[in-house]
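#onboarding

Welcome to the new folks! Below is a worked example of what a typical request in this channel looks like: someone posts a single protein sequence, and someone else replies with the predicted structure as tokens. Don't worry about understanding the tokens yet, we'll cover that in week two.

Example request:
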Amino acid sequence: MNSATKRSTIYFDEQLHEALRLKAAHTHQSISEIVNDAVRAALLEDQEDLAAFQERVAEPTMTYEELLNDLKAHGKL
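Example response:
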């Protein structure tokens, strides 16, 4: 393991831990590697979502009521 790693205690649901343990054995990875990969993927997805929100910040918005009225006016409701 990399010397720049930090140790943390995480409490998993029993069934989730068993699934992680089996996946680790099947893929020849440690549970830590699997969890680190999953956390990286989740953080990357968050970063992509935030970038998408930033790109659309100048777009016009409408209220829920306006949306419903527009759908009704166009025969969608």
